[in-house]
Amino acid sequence: MKSLGKKIRLLRHQNGWSQEDVAKRLDISIPAFSKIETGITDVNLSRLQQIAKLFDMSVVQLLNFNDADEEKKYTTDLEQANKKLQERNNDVIELQKKVIELYEELRKNYAGKN
């Protein structure tokens, strides 16, 4: 069951939910949900159906969910987002340089008139 708990934890992270968020949605305590994620508690079929529905999956999809592939996809998505963020940071730096250049040009023109 530890593998199922890891899958549930990965799905929870992908949705940006805390353990508290999921526990509330399942109408259970946070410690009870934590035990599901860590594999301490076995999940009965009705709870499994409830969890699958929460993640908009069938029970079969949840059980067959390949966490290695999904984690790789999640990591790739994160790397792409970081790359885009770095590109935008570079764009901002270039725009800041242009603003400084224009400011210096205006300052020189103003100083030359006085």
TrEMBL record:
<protein>
    <submittedName>
        <fullName>Transcriptional regulator, contains XRE-family HTH domain</fullName>
    </submittedName>
</protein>
<dbReference type="InterPro" id="IPR010982">
    <property type="entry name" value="Lambda_DNA-bd_dom_sf"/>
</dbReference>
<dbReference type="Pfam" id="PF13560">
    <property type="entry name" value="HTH_31"/>
</dbReference>
<feature type="domain" description="HTH cro/C1-type">
    <location>
        <begin position="8"/>
        <end position="62"/>
    </location>
</feature>
<keyword id="KW-0238">DNA-binding</keyword>
<dbReference type="InterPro" id="IPR001387">
    <property type="entry name" value="Cro/C1-type_HTH"/>
</dbReference>
<keyword id="KW-0175">Coiled coil</keyword>
<dbReference type="GO" id="GO:0003677">
    <property type="term" value="F:DNA binding"/>
</dbReference>
<feature type="coiled-coil region">
    <location>
        <begin position="68"/>
        <end position="105"/>
    </location>
</feature>
